[in-house]
Amino acid sequence: MATETHLRTCPLCEACCGLEITTEGDQVVRIRGDQSDPVSRGFICPKGSTLKQLHEDPDRLTSPRIKNDDGTWRDVTWHEAFAEIERRLGPIVDAHTRQALSIVIGNPNVHNLGGQLYLRPLIAAVGSTNIFSASTVDQMPKHVTAGLMWGRPDLFPLADIERTDYLLMLGANPRVSNGSLLTVPDFPGRLDELVERGARVVVVDPRRTKTADKASEHLTITPGTDVLWLLAIINTLFADDLVDIGRLAPHISGVDQVQAATIGFTPESIAERCGIDADVTRRIAHELAEAPSAAVYGRMGNHTTEYGSIASWAADVINALTGNLDRPGGIMFNCAPTQTLAPSEPGGRGFKLSRWVGRVSKRGEVKGELPAATLAQEILTPGEGKIRALVLVACNPVRSFPNSAQLDEAFASLDFMVAVDPYVTASSRHADVILPPTSALERSHYDFAFEANMIRVFAKYSKAVFATDAPREEEILSRLALVVSGKPSTSDPMLIHDSVVAQAVDQEIARESSPIHGRDREEILDVLSEWTWSEQLIDLKLRLGRFGDGFGATPDGLTLRRLIDDHPHGRDFGHLEQRFPDAIKTVSGTVELAPEPIMVDLDRLRSKLPGDHDLVGRRDLRSCNTWMHNVNVLIKGKERCTLQVHPDDAKRLGVIDGEMATVRSRVGEVTAPVEVTDDLITGVVSLPFGWGHGEPGIEMNTARTRPGVNSNRLTDESVMCAVSGNAALNAIPVEVVPV
Ligand code: SF4
User: Fold this and answer.
1) pLDDT average, residue stretch 455-479
2) Using CA positions, which residue lies closest to atom 5 of ligand 1?
3) pLDDT tens-digit profile of 92-144?
4) What DSSP string runs through 565-584?
5) Can you name the residues that pair with 391 across neighbouring β-strands?
6) In the beta sheet, which residues pair with residue 441?
7) What one-character-per-residue DSSP string does 340-364 give?
8) Is any ligand 1 atom within 6 A of the Cβ of residue 202?
9) Which of 269, 550, 594, 630 is deepest in the core (most CB within 10 A)?
10) 621 plus 677 within the same structural domain
11) Cα three-residue angle 660-666-670, rounded to 5 degrees
């Protein structure tokens, strides 16, 4: 049988690696890194090649399911599944209003075209303020500070690691995670190149991670205290007269307020709490200020703490005060090929928080969603507006949200749940109807989100490897949107697609600087008619994007067809360019260094200092989302779900390497095998995230052979970042006892 080669982007994490997939008929015979991909250069991690196993996984659902009254499942047709949703959901809305509905969205949605382009109509169809997502579990502090500081919550500051002279990383382990909120294809290779050309890499982490191991310097720190240490760096920049904002000085406001707000955080005052000598803190501040270019980048250990937003803000304040904001080698901002780079003046509508609050928690919304940590209480607490029915899209909150035992109980109490998920997971087992999307190899791909977070300007489209008769995820979400909105289950999902495309075209026709301003909608739709579903929207965005043909305005410009035909490995447009001040969209038109919500939370920080807590999470190269544990090659070998303990602590606590220990927090306990290691500082223990597959009803039979324990049985839903509502997954107070 003839073999075929398919080029595509790996959709499993943010790194956007190019893959070369060889097939024979309907079989994948090889997956390897695409050597000609201009940004990932052949790099691939162990997860990338498992797209074959994920595609062939016998536990992956290929037809919808409805739960029987006795709790067993039956496979049904798509028509029956949507009819059941219509039958069950209507009476709940009639009796309790739309506020009784909720939608919970997981992070795989940003890796899929359906999730990226068709979730908005579904969220609108749900029609309640009970919107939750994984963003308030792992990344909301960065959205919030980007929104407050430059008015654009989705414009992430990107460490320009290809050109920087100095990279300071906190709570980030990109040699294992391959990057987060910073898309760097072949992150390990680029870090090596950075060191080889003489740049300095400093890692701040309570664990000696793989990234820390290869850094120029590793500073250990008490969990949860990064925020104090960053404030001490800011304090030193002012005290030692190191502030030099440079080019952006006329466009930055609030410098004096930052100086006043950080006056008490001297390196000496935080040294003991952070576990970093004052001299070292002062030296790092000088190095950052004196390097020709420098970038401060923080991630999970930095953001998923009680003061995550202050930590996120402080990193970017340092970038600004050292003249590294929007400077090559410092922090840069992407403008992807699907985005426009039209000339504009600084200034805009800014960013607002707390436009509404949760019924029970009274926590404010952020970017249109409520904190994930409050979901269980919004379901369990009786009263008007209680959540009774849930739409779950590509999410496993019973593993990924804090206090998962409470959430498990909450999900079991729902009147109705529909899950869009390829697996029966700890969460989707509570559903009444499951709608399975196709496998990654059966869908086309375009990375809108991650191309916008990449350190280079890049475009790549991936065709589906295998054809299928199953509905596309776009179609599933559109049909679900119609049924949830109250339309008959037999409605044509193209109604949603047509309105999404028409709306996007109309917006451009109305926008004065658009190349299609004032043109006829039908004429534009006619050009797009070569494509259907997501491809129509990709073509539209590429044509109207910064390199696009503008529907004829720039005849040689980019279109989807040209991208496919001329650049099958993807097209690299080069380094990021400076975007400030034009891209600043705060009300003042300046980068606001002292936004009020951060200043207010600094008062809370002063009255309740972090640094007494001990459990931290950790990332494994072979793990990302929970369903990857159903791939044997990713879980075999050495036990990965271990409780790491420092040798001195092991002795003090009486726990022994390889034997079991129980870890208790305020909300729960787990028992895990102990791994004694000096990779951690004393007083800190570590459990990885995403395990715990042994409970009844989970149909992930490979994962069940190595179930591990769920670290979110220990995380406390009542502790969260006050500004962003983000869960605190690190620096959890626990006690450890031998079993
Ligand atoms: S690093 Fe991420 S994108 Fe690259 S192969 Fe691994 S999982 Fe896929």
Assistant:
1) 97
2) 48
3) 999 999 999 999 999 999 999 999 999 999 999 999 999 999 999 999 999 99
4) HH-TT-EEEEE----TTTT-
5) 103, 418
6) none
7) ------S--------SSB-TTT-PB
8) no
9) 630
10) yes
11) 20
The closest-lying atom of ligand 1 relative to the alpha carbon of residue 45 is 6
Ligand 1 centroid to Cα of residue 451, in Å, is 14
The answer to whether the peptide bond before residue 185 is cis (omega within 30 degrees of 0) is no
pLDDT at residue number 720: 96
Among 717, 624, 104, which residue's Cα sits nearest to residue 395?
A: 104
Closest to 236 measured CA to CA, from 274, 255, 264, 257: 264
Q: In what order do the strands lie in the sheet with 18-24?
A: 3-9, 18-24, 27-33
Tens digits of residue pLDDT in 137-158: 999 999 999 999 999 999 999 9
What are all long-range contacts of 657-661, with beta carbons under 8 Å and residues at least 24 apart?
659/738, 659/739, 660/738, 660/739, 661/736, 661/737, 661/738, 661/739
Query: How far, in Å, is the centroid of ligand 1 from the Cα of 46?
Result: 8
Tokens of 555: 């005849």
| Mutational pocket test of ligand 1: of 31, 37, 47, the residue with most ligand atoms within 8 Å of the beta carbon | 47
As a whole number of angstroms, the distance between CA 228 and CA 614 comes to 16
One domain for residues 712 and 677: yes
Look at residue 118 in the predicted model and tell me its pLDDT: 96
* Separation CA 266–CA 94 (nearest Å): 59
pTM, rounded to two decimals: 0.96
Question: 483: domain range?
Answer: 60-128+351-451+461-489
* Helix, strand, coil fractions of the chain, as percent rounded to 5: 35, 15, 45
**One domain, residues 21 and 157:** no
Residue 12 beta carbon below 6 angstroms from any ligand 1 atom? yes
Q: Does the beta carbon of 48 sit less than 6 angstroms from any atom of ligand 1? A: yes
First to last CA, the chain: 57
Distance of alpha carbon 487 from alpha carbon 490, whole angstroms: 8
Q: What is the CATH number of the domain that holds 154?
A: 3.40.228.10
Q: Does one domain contain both 308 and 260?
A: yes
Q: pLDDT tens digit string along 264-287?
A: 999 999 999 999 999 999 999 999
Domain count within the chain: 4
For residues 478-509, b (16+ Cβ closer than 10 Å) or e, as one string? bbbbbbbbebebebebeebbeebbeebbeebb
Q: How many CB atoms lie within 10 A of CB 556?
A: 7
Residue that is written with structure tokens 């995820």 in the block: 473
Name the burial class of residue 384, with classes exposed (0-12), middle (13-18) and buried (19+) by CB atoms within 10 angstroms of its CB.
exposed
* CATH number of the domain encompassing residue 34: 2.20.25.90
Residue 679 CB neighbour total at 10 angstroms: 17
Rounded to an integer, the average pLDDT of 277-306 is 96
- Whether 392 and 294 map to the same domain: the answer is no
CB of 137 closer than 8 Å to CB of 400:
yes
Q: In ligand 1, which atom is closest to the CA atom of 178?
A: 1
Per the DSSP assignment, residues forming a β-bridge with 67 are: 73
| pLDDT, mean of residues 634-639 | 91
CA of 15 to the centre of ligand 1 (A): 6
Facing residues of 417 across strands? 390
Q: Tokens at residue 654, please?
A: 């009486």
